[in-house]
Amino acid sequence: MAEPKQIRKLDEDVVNKIAAGEVIQRPANAIKEMVENSLDACSSSIQVSVKSGGLKLIQIQDNGCGIQKDDMPLLCERFTTSKLEKFEDLSSISTYGFRGEALASITHVAHVTVTTRTANSKCAYKATYQDGKIVGAAPGQPAEARPCAGNHGTLISVEDLFYNMPSRRRALKSASDEYSRIADVVNKYAIHNAGVAMTLKKQGEAMADLKTSTSSNVVDNISTVYGPSVARELLSLSCEDTKLGFKMTGYISNANYSVKKLNFILFINHRLVDSTNIRKSLESVYANYLPKHSHPFIYLNIEITPSSVDVNVHPTKHEVFFLHEDLIIEALQKCVEDKLLGCNSSRTYYTQALLPTNISSATSNIVNNKKSSTGGGEKPSQYAYQMVRTDSREMKLDAFVRPPSLDATTRPSSTPTTNTANRSDPVDMDTSNPIVIDDEGSSAAKRPRENETANQTTTSVEVPAKKRRHHKPVHLTSVLNLQQRIKENQHKELTELFKNYKFVGCVDQTRSLVQYMTKLYLIDVSKVSKELFYQLMIFDFANFGTLRLSTGAPINQLSMLMLESSESGWTEDDGPKDTLAKYIKDLLCNKTDMLKDYFSMEINEDGEMLTLPLLLDSYTPNLDNLPRLLLKLATEVNWDSEQECFETLSREFSSFYSVQYDPYMIDCIKPTGSATEDMPATQSDLQQSSLQKEQPWRWITEHVIFPAFRTELVPPRQMAEDGSVLQIADLHDLYKVFERC
Fold first, then answer.
1. Nearest-CA neighbor of 454 among 560, 549, 547, 551?
2. Which DSSP string corresponds to 403-459?
3. How many CB atoms lie within 10 A of CB 486?
4. Domains in the chain, please, with CATH?
5. 427: closest CA among 661, 665, 628?
6. Residue 673 and residue 520 in contact, taking contact as beta carbons nearer than 8 Å
7. How far is 557 from 200, CA to CA, in rounded Å?
8. Rounded CA gap, 566 and 426, in Å?
9. What is the tens place of the pLDDT at every residue in 487-539?
């Protein structure tokens, strides 16, 4: 039998290193201890700088009360502290530190230098420490604090952490991982200590990864650390129970917010701790509100009577024990659940212009999948949330919504006519002959039917079989500049969306749904069409077709109608209406040569408008807005500068031509000579024909406006921000939301 080994007392150096390894497990622990010391010193500014994840260098500078010169020899010795005198003081401890072990432990595993200055000191003092004792800065120098220049407060430098513990150093992960742990600690203390300005950065870098100010509050700091998407979804918590001796405040995210990883910040008596029981109990509450495998944001500040809390449980003070834990957790659960129930009557969905994914990467994935499937290998699995509808013959949104029945007073007739006698719009022309719009060169003319009265206006457009594209060159520098500006402002991702979309259906006259990849987008047709027609005015400059009015439209009379409307904004200070109407007529008549040559807008000697530019085949603007257009051309166009004149005039025309809500929108004739005429009529064709007659605006949107978006539109950057294009659903995210069903 082996002889028992002799019991020996460990050397003090071995004891200190073992204790240091328990207190300082990694750089984040060292920074936590030193940040707490700075907070105990009543600092209002704390700056943390690290190098190589804290293994090479850690510097923490504060503007606190500093350290007396006489206390510096004892500063880093074990069990020396200014915060505790006897064991009974633990029951009322209100500071972070109390054991006097943190700095001592750091000096046993690193080289520590402390520079400090109090408010009453004429200079700062600097001292170097090793193994808990003050030493000389270099061999042969006295072991004492040396006077030097310095700011009020304390600067602690920790170099070569774990230099004498190679196994511990090798066990640590990469420098980036250690830095992320450091950032997590500093971020949480910054959120909790809203009145303290905290800065965290990597040594040598100018930009700080965290920077808060003394004037910011808790919500501001949460927004700085975790982003505004969290801050706008926060709910304020408050709970107090005098019997249990605790008080709780904090912020939690509502049911609209969820992330893949739980953000749980818990302070008990202003000490950063972790409690598995509290964390799990609160997550169980959120399980009823959030999708599976998603988590909330929780920040709690719990104050418990110091006599009921044992903070001396773990060497790193990461855990605490407190009395009545089960009852307190139950009270916290009830408070959180009541708050979530109170905001669960409705969900808020924030819309934003989410840009589509890069089409090149998506295309390459499709190509690779095809190659692998045809190369004899096993066909790659495709999940349901990755499937994209590509067959345009599949049912659209209209197949699921029954069109409202239109009565005889509102349904346009099967012939391309529109009755405007009953419009609520004050703009109404009283003419004995109807105005007929026709393409240049067409002899089509429509007469009023027997049941139509004299004040009814009939419009007709005959669509050419082929799209006009016989451009004559434009050499005007102003126009070329406007064209170049449009090209430079192009948004590439939105361009891919409009070129590769799949039309889903119309929501109403000014909004439609399209699908791109696995995402669903809501398109504001009014805004996008306005930009489309502006670009057509610029790129087709001086090359427009014409829409001819069979009877000239008197400018003076139309201007008077507009001035009589409250929409014109006319006041007595503007002068007599007839004078203004004559001014509009004279101004446009003086510009008739330019308007005819460049914009296909012809005005005769009697001041009657005879033609309008044809911007898009199969599309006719709403003529009720013609008086408004004339007023805008006279008041909003800058006629003195060539480039500004062309730009502002094109903008006014684009507003006139843009898609707008109109319950009496004129019918549209389907282009002749189309490939579908020679084919037998299918059910889909019959549905389209019925739709074209009963709800022409749907047909125009799908078959005229959106094809023009695909081929003509150059989406500008601002279109991604002004609500013109909104992502409202993603197939992958929908599977996440409904996977619990």
1. 551
2. PPPP-TTTSPPSSS----TT-SSS-----SS---EEETT-----PPPTT--TT----
3. 16
4. 12-214 (3.30.565.10), 227-342 (3.30.230.10), 397-447+455-673+681-728 (no CATH)
5. 628
6. no
7. 71
8. 9
9. 999 999 999 999 999 998 888 889 999 998 888 899 999 999 999 999 999 99
